[in-house]
Amino acid sequence: MTEAQIYILVAIGAYVIAMTLIGLFSFRKAKSLDSFLLGNRKIGAWMTAFSYGTTYFSAVVFVGYAGQHGWNIGIGAIWIGIGNAILGCLLSWLLLANKTRKMTRALNAKTMPDFFEKRYQSKGLKLMASIIIFIFLVPYSAAVYKGLGAIFGAIFPNVEAWVWLLIIACVTAVYLVIGGYIASSLTDLIQGIIMIVGIIALVIVVLLHGNVGGLQGLIENLGKFESALGDPNPTTGSQLTSIFGGSSFKFLCVNILLTSFGTWGLPQMIGKFYAVKDAPAIKRGTIISTIFCLIIGCGAYLIGATSRLILGGQLPEGGVDAVIPTLLIKVLGNGTFGLILLAVIVVLLLSASMSTLQSVVLTSASAVSVDFIPTVMKKEIEPKKQMLLTRILCFVFVACSFIFATLNIPIIVSVMSFSWGVVSGCFIGPYLWSLFSKKTTKAGVYAGMIAGLSTVGIITLIITITSGFSVAAKSSPEMGVLAMAVSLIIVPIVSALTKKKTSKEEAERVENLFNCYKEN
Known about the structure:
single chain; Sodium/glucose cotransporter; globular; mainly alpha; 2 domains
């Protein structure tokens, strides 16, 4: 065993012990379903802000997005991090947080499917929303596992990746099943601190690397590197040093839109606003979360932009997914300080992924225990039995995600490519219009969900028939953005056409519901 591996194992061991203790500490506070899922709606600014940010960024962002886009696009990839912070975080908090907090409390809604049912008094909407979450969020969590597998596979090449994924799955299951949302929020706070310290230290070390030479050197050396390869495009100029992404400008815009506005329709992200305790906490949380996302997002893509210089333009054997792991080992693989920092960075990536996993798993499990099963059975489940069922399902979903990630089941791997865009496309229109417009109807919400799902499904089918599924998978970001746009447009149109069917009693109920916004 190498010295680097020893440092990393010690750091992971300490981290695992800390997370387990937090789960045990939180157990006595998670006695009811409301406390297990929402922390009794008393979560403060710091924990909510860090929970939002750590759920946003997982190992997939570092290993997949930052590595791939930093390598292919260059400096311009940083705009994805900026877009995530401004559009996906700041604007989301400003527009959605307080309204979500007030309306979900007025409805006593615990989940997004629960919100749709109580907003429109429709068990059908609840059932449809829970099915969409069940089908597409579990594969998304499997993608997070695969991102972690790439990291540990590079650092521990002699150990099968599934061994590490099993350890991660067990730790996630233990503190989540025991402590619920309170444990999740506490661990997110600690994980967020680790992520900030780690990313700032890594950015400094990477920029000071001899092949990079600071921010100014980064741009100059990338230009020289590209010129030596004869890569500059006569029309767009240097790809790697173009601030707007050069020939990848369109691709850059699509990914900014998908990964930023996509959070507005993701249940695991919106769910953070259900639990925040009051308006002052939202004001503070908005600032904290935005700063967090700026540091993590911009830092990750900046590191990705340095990858060609540090790796000498040689793409690692594992392709773009191996760019960041290989960069870490090359930059931090020697010296005591470097090895300590490498251990911190590995824990950073582990933290980012586990926070995302716990949010996705809790959202998926509650969609089945709180929304799907009672609706299908057509009767309410006792609160204690429902909480026990939710705990059991958390464990089941962790296990399923682990199995899907390790077995590479073809259909699951395929669903991973579309999960973010499909879920966002199905929910962004129905949720936003439900939150802001009294005129939104049940038919409009149904149409929005179906339109979002159909947009991706129909386009995927057409491209698959004409060009093959691999081509369709590469177009999944564009499909996701289009699905969100269609969903936002369809909901108000169908609502306007069906508004006359709304009864007087329903109109009065909605009017009274929207009075919750007048309360502090």
